[in-house]
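Submission sheet (multi-component)
Chains listed below:
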Amino acid sequence: MILTADCVTKSFGERRVLSAGTLRAVRGQVRAMLGRNGAGKSTLMKIAAGWIRADAGMVHLLGQPVLRPSLSGMARAGVFYLPDHDLLSPSYTLERQLRFFHDAFRQRSVEEAARLANVTECLDRRVHQLSGGEGRRAELAAVLVRQPLCLLADEPYRGIAPIDHEEVTRILRHLAADGCAVVVTGHEVPSLLDAADHVTWCTNGTTYELGPPAAARSHERFVREYLGPQGHG
Amino acid sequence: MTVHTIPAASVRALALRAAILWVLVRLLVGAAGTFADEGGTSLDSPIGIILLCCALGLVDIRRRHERALWANLGISLAVIGSLFAFVAATGEGVLAMIRITP
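Outcome: structure written.
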C-alpha cells in the first residue's frame, strides 16, 4: 500500500460531501473510483493528495501518517496529483515544463517520456496550442518524467476523443507496470473499467471496495444505482 | 522513494518573473509618487514594495493556473512567495546602494 486516506470526512458549509470515505493506492495497480456527480470522488482524491484539508480522517504515505498533508510535501515524497484541468502552465512550452520535472526529480528523460506519451511533435508548443487529447497526453508526459510512487488522476478521460482514451489507458497501464500506484476517477465507465484492476464505488459520502471490474459489473446495487439499466461498460 | 533536488530551472523561471514584477512595481510606485504629496505613497518604502511584490507574485501564479504545476514540483506557495520577496529585497538593496553612492 503506497497511499491511504482513511475514514475521511469533509463538509463544505452545511453540505457534508464525505462522511467516511477511504482511498487506497496500491503499488502496481490502477484503481478506478466511480460514483455520481457530487459523490465526493474528487474531494477524496484532493484530500489524499494534500490539495485540500479533511475535517477528519488520516492520510498515510508508505505506512507513515502524514499529519499536515500539503501537495508540495506529498509531491516531494512521490505523489503526483493530476487535476481535471490546468496542470501545465500556458506561459512555457511543453518541453520546458517537462524539463522542470526532470530537473527537480532526475527520473525519466524528457525525450523518452514524450515518446511514451506520443507528444514528441508537441514539445515546442505551449499548452493552449494543443488539442484536448494532446494536452492530456502532455500532462501524462509530465507524470512519466516524474515517475511517481503514486498518481492520483482526477478525470483523465474527460473531454477527449475515444482514440485518446486508448492512449490514456495505455499510459496509465504503463505507469502501473512500472510499479506506480494509480488511482483514477471519472464517468467514462468503459475506459475506466478497461484500465482498472480494482473498482471503488463512492456513494452517499462513503466508499465501497467492489473488487475487480468483473465483480463491479455484477454488483447489483452498483449497477442499479450508478451504471443504470443499460449497465454501461 | 526518489531524491528531490532543488529544481534550479524552476527557480530561475520564477526569479526572472519576480525581477520583472519588481521593476514594474517600482516604476508604478515611482510614477504614483510623483503625483502624490511630498511624503510619497504609503507603499513607497522598501518593506511596502517587497510585500506588494510577494502578494502580486502569488496572484500571478493563481492567474496563470500554475498552483498545481509548482506544487507537483514540490514547490509550495510559501516558497514562491519567499522567492518573490527575496528578489524584491535584492532589488531594493541594489537601489539603496545606488542612492547612497555619491
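Remark: Residues 8-35 of chain B form the longest helix (28 residues).
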